[in-house]
């Protein structure tokens, strides 16, 4: 009997960008950008940039910056060991600084992490990870937006049932629905872009006063965060934000909105691709382990799952806003995993949304056929307005109520029944009862939405 494989304790699903229980983000650009190796790289980048910034201001020799930069090679560090040793001080920066100092050597080792606190480095690394992830997420949003714009333009005159509270309401066009999806994607893009551009470095020292840098010779310690930001391509904060967690909250909100916006597309596709509806279909559905005939809307399913998880993760990050004192115990620590999960979920959903939108198949003939499911009653709103001047408002309402019941009972269309009403013989009932001729300004609204870039 073959023994099961023994897991490699040094292996990490986060390093490989995979997780057995996370098909929604596994293999996505966001997966590799948020793994343990990516965080390790960001931590080392933050440490190396700090020494460079101090060297640029004359607070450290240039040789020290070169030495720290050369030693800050992620391949030379053991992420698993760092994770285990992080328990001792409550964060991975403490063991990392010890390892990096040893790697730099006796001469320039004292310049590693000089004047900083662990939160400075971990917060800055988190902003780097976020920036790098968002830079990968935005192109997928652009792909999604482009595909939806094409669908909206192509189907600006494709009539379909509008549904409210799960029931047929009045006719609409599929182009307007696609344009609405695109508007949400653009809303998400705008929020992600704004947050990405505002991501700040963190530098305040032990209690946010920059005091240690003055002790090391800085005549203007306030200039150091600006130099630090310039080294990393992030924003310089007005104040150290150890307990002023707006950057995290803003990032959480943008990611949750993105997941929710993409989730709206997904749930609509899930509804419209039901067997008994079949108005759209994913380009390549997933299979079933038990039913060979199925082509499940897997992309939509995974996006919808991400959209359902994101609000709770964002809530945890919002819950960390009340952070006590000048450095918090617990509130800061509670942010790390939910934020990484949010980055992964939004990034995976963006990947899947691009594939979904680019491959979506639309069935206009099925949409048109469904407009007749209510025997013409889908245009009853129009008829109420059109018949009132002819019959009087009360008589028109009474007649339509009566004919609605007869349409179902007799399996006849509303148009046929109206044709039997003497007072209406001069009206063009074919036009009045054609659902495709009662889509209002849907096409114009679609065009208007597509003007947004």
Report on the architecture of this protein.
With 453 residues, the chain is mostly helical. The chain has 19 helices and four strands. Strand 1 (159-164) and strand 2 (167-173) form a beta hairpin. The chain is elongated and about 105 Å long. Residues 1-14 have low confidence and may be disordered.
Low-pLDDT windows of residues: 1-14
Q: Could you give the order of strands across the largest sheet?
A: 1-2
How many runs of DSSP E, i.e. beta strands?
4
Question: What fraction of residues sit in β-strands?
Answer: under 5%
Q: Whole-number average pLDDT?
A: 94
Q: What is the alpha-carbon Rg in Å?
A: 30 Å
- What about the largest sheet? 2 strands, antiparallel
- Figure out the total of helices: 19
What coarse outline follows from CA principal-axis ratios? elongated
Q: What class would the helix/strand composition place it in?
A: mainly alpha
- Name the helicity range: 55-70%
What is the helix/strand order?
HHHHHHHEEHHHHEHHEHHHHHH
* First-residue to last-residue Cα separation: 62 Å
């Amino acid at each position: 009997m073959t023994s099961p494989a023994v897991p490699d304790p040094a292996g990490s699903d986060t390093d490989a960008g995979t997780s057995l229980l996370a098909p929604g983000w596994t293999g996505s650009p966001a997966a590799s950008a948020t793994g343990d190796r990516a965080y390790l790289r960001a931590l080392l980048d933050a440490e190396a940039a700090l020494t460079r910034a101090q060297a640029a201001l004359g607070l450290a020799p240039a040789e020290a910056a070169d030495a720290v930069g050369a030693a800050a090679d992620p391949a030379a560090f053991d992420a698993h060991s760092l994770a285990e040793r992080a328990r001792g001080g409550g964060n991975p920066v403490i063991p990392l600084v010890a390892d990096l100092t040893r790697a730099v050597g006796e001469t320039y080792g004292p310049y590693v992490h000089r004047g900083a606190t662990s939160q400075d480095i971990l917060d800055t690394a988190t902003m780097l990870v976020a920036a790098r992830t968002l830079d990968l997420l935005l192109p997928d949003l652009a792909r999604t937006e482009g595909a939806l714009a094409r669908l909206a333009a192509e189907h600006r005159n494709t009539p379909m049932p509008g549904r409210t509270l799960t029931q047929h309401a009045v006719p609409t066009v599929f182009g307007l629905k696609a344009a609405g999806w695109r508007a949400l994607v653009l809303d998400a893009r705008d929020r992600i872009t704004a947050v990405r551009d505002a991501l700040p470095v963190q530098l305040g020292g032990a209690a946010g006063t920059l005091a240690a840098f003055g002790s090391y010779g800085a005549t203007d310690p306030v200039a150091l965060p600006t130099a630090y930001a310039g080294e990393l391509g992030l924003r310089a904060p007005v104040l150290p934000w150890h307990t002023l967690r707006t950057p995290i909250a803003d990032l959480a909100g943008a990611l949750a909105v993105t997941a929710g916006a993409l989730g709206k597309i997904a749930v609509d596709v899930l509804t419209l691709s039901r067997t008994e509806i079949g108005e759209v279909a994913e380009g390549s559905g997933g299979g079933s382990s038990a039913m060979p005939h199925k082509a499940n809307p897997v992309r939509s399913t995974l996006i919808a799952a991400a959209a359902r998880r994101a609000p709770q993760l964002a809530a945890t990050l919002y819950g960390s806003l009340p952070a006590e004192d000048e450095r918090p115990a617990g509130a800061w620590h509670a942010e790390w995993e939910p934020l990484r999960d949010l980055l992964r979920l939004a990034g995976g959903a963006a990947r899947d949304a691009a594939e979904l939108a680019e491959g979506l198949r639309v069935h206009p003939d099925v949409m048109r056929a469904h407009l007749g499911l209510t025997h013409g009653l889908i245009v009853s709103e129009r008829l109420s307005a059109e018949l009132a001047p002819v019959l009087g408002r009360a008589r028109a309402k009474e007649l339509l109520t009566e004919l609605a019941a007869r349409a179902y009972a007799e399996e006849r269309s509303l148009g046929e029944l109206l044709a039997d009403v003497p007072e209406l013989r001069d009206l063009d009932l074919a036009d009045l009862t054609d659902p495709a001729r009662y889509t209002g300004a849907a096409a114009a609204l679609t065009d208007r939405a597509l003007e947004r870039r």
